[in-house]
Amino acid sequence: MRHLSLIAGLVLIAGAVQAQQLDWWQTGVIYQIYPRSYKDSNGDGIGDINGIISKLDYIASLGVAAIWLSPIYKSPMADFGYDISDFRDIDPLFGTLDDFKLLVAEAKSRNLGIIMDMVPNHSSDEHEWFVKSEQKIEPYTDYYFWQPAKGFDPNGAPIPPNNWLSVFGGSAWAWSELRQEFYLHQFHAKQPDFNYRNPAIVQELKDILTFWYDLGVYGFRWDAVTHMFEDPALPDEPVSGNPVDPNDYNYLKHIYTQNLPETPYTLSLYKAHTDEYSLNAGDGLHRVMMLEVWNPIEEVMQYYRNVSDFPFNFRFLTTMGAYSNGRDAENAIRGWVDNIPDNGWPNWVLGNHDISRVGSRLQLTDGAILTTLLLPGTSINYYGEELGMVDTYIPPEEVVDPAGYRDPPRTPMQWDDSQFAGFTTGPKPWLRVNDNYLTVNVAAEEAADESVLKIFRKLVALRKEPAIQFGTLHTTVVSYELVLAYAREAVNATDRSYMVVLNWSHDQTHVVNLSPGAFGAFPFEITNPTVEIRTIGSDIP
């Protein structure tokens, strides 16, 4: 067991400075829900909008500011909703547009906003636009990235234009017998890529944003944005040198299909459109624009400024593992805050629907949320993190993810110790429930003297403190680089400052000296510390 330590309230710091005003998306926590796994209201084994509505009181009790929903648009579900056949409607699996309107209204009545997923790179091949594009019906002919065959092999089979690969493996090109051309799909073959060099597509997406803003959404998380543009000259991509199969996406360096210069510019048009809508709405609501960008940090930072409110910070996902120590945690923090551009807003992500849960990946949950929730910036938390949910083993015969690896973090929310963890009253959930649901569930953690859920709520509440919203961040590492310590130094002398001390070692207890002068890296003296929050199993009295 890890012996994890404390957050201490400190009495110190002088100098009164007027703090800037922060908006809802800067002070609040954004809570991601994977809708088909949250709560099933009709017994079909799949979570839905009415299920989410039934749990809004619980979500509000967490203290979060907004709910980010993974895609609920109409879809054939080849990629569980990321293949969209109608950007202006709800898939019947999840409910109706009227159900969605009720969700927005009920959430708003509890001071919760609704954030939707925007999937700008592609649609479903069953979308009306693609069906008409394949038939060369105007104005849709060039809505997608079509190219003629490079030639034909001895058997008469068409040869793809180049060697580009799909994220899901194999060629990124699919042949249309009807149109007698290839279309690009950087993901699933049923997800044809849009042609963003066609201004009509840019306008179509603006109109879709307006449609949902009119229905009251608080903003969008933009999926896989770095794939939006490709080099029109169609050069082959170079081999990466990675020891993988030639059909594996990582076999190539994606210098012609990812992160092209046109991408940030085009996204800036959507940011301007969003800001203009908010200004004209006159309701004082800032509609947020968050981007999924997995690239190296120097490339990620170009998606700040006028491109978005922030690109997601995945450093705790990409640079941290089960054997990471305090120094690694500090590097994950400093690597973002020290590289962020002027006036850029930080954010912290511990998990999502595409990667192993933080409780499995880092082998701790309360310590991880303790680390990130009190850092400067927005916290984005995946459903179940507030409980300490971990990945679920899915037997090969039960795997449903087309990519083959994303099922374990997508299993149903664990509400209680009844059958299927209270997720569904039906005969079977769409994915199996984790075996630990008898003890790791909302009801059990509400009743426990100490639980990850109770720690999560306390941390979210502490985010309202002036030192957490406006305070200076100081970091250091002690105890042979195993223990991370950071402080949020209050701006005003009348406000409390806070320090987080977290042991990242395995099966080791460390004594940390909190006496005055012990933390030489901090430009202030620690006096009269009081313990505010202890992690589960902590030896702190």
UniProtKB/TrEMBL annotation:
Record domain Glycosyl hydrolase family 13 catalytic: where: 32-463
Catalytic activity, EC: 3.2.1.20
Biological process terms in GO annotation: carbohydrate metabolic process
Any Pfam family the entry gives: Alpha-amylase
Reactions performed catalytically: Hydrolysis of terminal, non-reducing (1->4)-linked alpha-D-glucose residues with release of alpha-D-glucose
EC category name: hydrolase
Keyword terms of this UniProt record: Glycoprotein, Glycosidase, Hydrolase, Signal
GO MF terms, alphabetically ordered: alpha-1,4-glucosidase activity
CDD domains, A to Z: AmyAc_maltase
SUPFAM superfamilies to which the protein is assigned, alphabetical: (Trans)glycosidases
Domain of life: Eukaryota
Residues spanning the signal sequence: 1-19
Family: Belongs to the glycosyl hydrolase 13 family.
Matching PANTHER family: ALPHA-AMYLASE FAMILY MEMBER (PTHR10357), NEUTRAL AND BASIC AMINO ACID TRANSPORT PROTEIN RBAT (PTHR10357:SF179)
Protein name: alpha-glucosidase
Organism of origin: Cloeon dipterum
